[in-house]
Design a protein that fits this description.
mainly alpha, single chain, disordered N terminus
Length: 219
Amino acid sequence: MKETSNRPAREVSAEQEILSYWFPPGIHEADAETYREQWLRWFAGGPEVEQEITDRFGEVLEQARRGELDSWAETPRGRLALIIVLDQFSRSVYKDTPLAYAQDPAALRLAQEGIEAGMDRGMEVAERLFFMMPLGHAEGPDHLERIDLAVRGAEEQVYLAPAHLKPLYEFSLGQARAHRDVIARFGRHAHRNAILGRAYTPEELEYLKNEILVHMRRP
């Protein structure tokens, strides 16, 4: 008779759960159409995705905001999970409120220190994409310099991406360059002004009225 074990199955860590949710199993080897569907989920989301993130990871986000998960940053994948929580999940859980952007400085610090330490090297192209995302998201006096680094990273992503995924990463490079243009013109993400209670400049109003916002573009 086959013996059975009474030992509990190995628990999945919170970091692993976040990464498995954000990067579903098999996504890095997926065909172009499956990958594009995940891409739209990442960047277009929608109310259903936002609610799912809120329900599953809202408390994790609160822990991260309180600094209770800082130890995750000690490993490359733990740091990636923490960046995703602070940089991406905040935008779903706190959509259309100032809190959506309040975690950007913390996410930026994690990304910058991790990149300087080479912690993003060896990751999949999609993982590196999100590891670097805070460089362009976080506003501040060095924003243009940081987004220049993000553009160079996006250029490298195109080179590293498999042939069937290069069109998506070429689109991502175009997005990085377009964000760079916005920051060069205004020094900030003008579409956030109303949410953050900032006054618009005439140039920003003209841009918002007549141009498609970069983050609203789709491949």
